[in-house]
BCCT family transporter
Amino acid sequence: MIKFSRVRTTLSGAVVIPSLIFILGICLLSAIFPQFTESLLNIIKDFIFVNLNYVYVWSVTIFVLFLIYLMFSRYGNIRLGKNNSRPDYSFFSWISMLFAAGMGIGLMYFSVAEPMQHYSNEVFSGNTATQRAKDAQLYTFFHWGIHAWAIYGVVGLSLAYFAYRYRLPLSLRSCFYPLLKDKIKGTWGNTIDVFALCSTFFGITTTLGFGVVQVNSGLETLGVLPDSNFIYQVVIVVVLVSLSIISAVSGVDKGVKVLSGINIVGVVVLLLFVLVLGPTVYLIGSFTEGIGIYINEFFSLTFNTHVYDSNTQSWFYDWTILYWAWWISWSPYVGLFIAKISKGRTIREFVAAVLIIPTLFNFIWMSVFGNSAIWFDLNVANGALSQLATSPDALMFRFLEYLPLTEMVSFLVIAIIIVFFVTSADSGMFVMNSIATKNARISPKWQTIGWGILLATLALMLLNAGGLNALQSMTLITALPFSVIMLLFIVSLVKALSIDRDYYERAFSETTVPWSGDSWKERLKQIISFNDKESIDKFIDTIVKDAFSELQKELAENNIEAMVNFKENPHRVEIEVPYDIVNNFVYGIKNESRIIANYLLDEDNLPDIEERHVFFPESYFGDDREGYDVQLFTKKELISDVLKHYERFLEMVSEERNRMFISRDAHQRLR
């Protein structure tokens, strides 16, 4: 009885309890006092958008430039996992899943609505219809292009790298490991996960709420439902969330993967239908020209804050800044999901695929639907579609009335929205459970079901009370602090990548170059020992001093004057060959220290280490080149190393082109 009375759970109380308190608190406020909550949150949101919009602009710009740099840098070959790991999913399945999670319902909701709203916006009413059509396409490209996917890419790459390369939990807290180290296991890590869970929940809830409204509107347009009634919305939510739960419980390899593949096929069929039966020549031409304009205006759009144009500033806040905030607020959810399915990809492959492929598809999609709607509005509808620009729920279905097979295609659109709904919800449940359990490998299915029920309940509660807009504002507000967190992700990732590259590319020590099998036992003792200051001083005063003194005598026999110098702070000895015209040749050995990692102090399979500071003899040269540890050199090998550098010195001073580096007074003669 005791065994069965305990409910098995993998949920982390430190993450779940504060998250649920905050989520339920905001949702209840939005449902009970929708107007007050929406008004208050809008004031905060407007303040951020007006006074701190540059944070979003600079953050998104840095994300784009950083990922492009990584794609072409030497770090691009680093694999998200072990060096011999391979991807878990085929390229098509991978692209299908990240695409469905990243854009989903938004493509159906805004593909006609956004271009039409830009086209009919009063801010641009002074322009010609042709110019407004071009601008509508350009701004839609800007909002749904590389910038949006760069936001997702930064989070997804950071998560995948630290999870599969560092073998840390697939959690946002893991992205701070190079900065916080083991502190990610405590309060700092819990705080980051609470923020991610709340942001993910708010983003999914509002998006699914708007998706339900669009499905209801589509079914009403087709005559399946008599009106957009809350009762019908309850039925739609229950059916769709039930399907989402079934898909989520089936796992990523089954439900999400299969549905994403089906959806991509459906989307391509719909796209080709509109392209072929719509104004085909106009669409292909406008897409081609639109790509050129986008590339030409890329940097201007990226850095434009409209500070010199007060007429378009409100539009800028309501569209560009809102979009950046929206994508950032969604990035914990999308990033976690993308990371989950990206194990085994190289950084270059990840960045190229995430930035380019979905962006190109979005451009094609938005061009076909948005430009078709504008063309119909200009040439067929006599402005009827422009008048519906403020009703995005119905605009897609009204647009389809100007194409053949309207009813059949409308049902296809609803089916695609439903599958997008299901894929967004099931991947959302998976991600939320992953955050709430600190990425537990196996969790009971009731937890996934519980997240689905919570999503459905709160979405319906807010739909009924009219609180979705308030929750949307809350989602956008959370984007500001998370944009700062994402910038820290980049700092952490750069630090980790440099360490990663150095680890795999570090060559053998200079000391090992002249080794043979002689005296290997003595060398082994030296390798596994950790020296104190006194033992290194003794090495310098004996082996190094004897080597330099013997070399000094041999140089004198060859009519070359040399000096052996002793200095302190740090303790060191050097051999110097003086010259009048060129800089003196100097080769020295000094007593240096380094700090070893804490975890080695407790390592049983190493010799005892009493202090974190260990000492070693390091070489240095007269031209400030970087030295190296020479403690494994024998006396003869040390003499050989000095001669190697002396030969290099003589070769360098004999070349005229090196005058600025080797001449004592070259800089004075050039004054």
In short: The longest helix spans residues 468-505. Residues 520-669 form one domain.
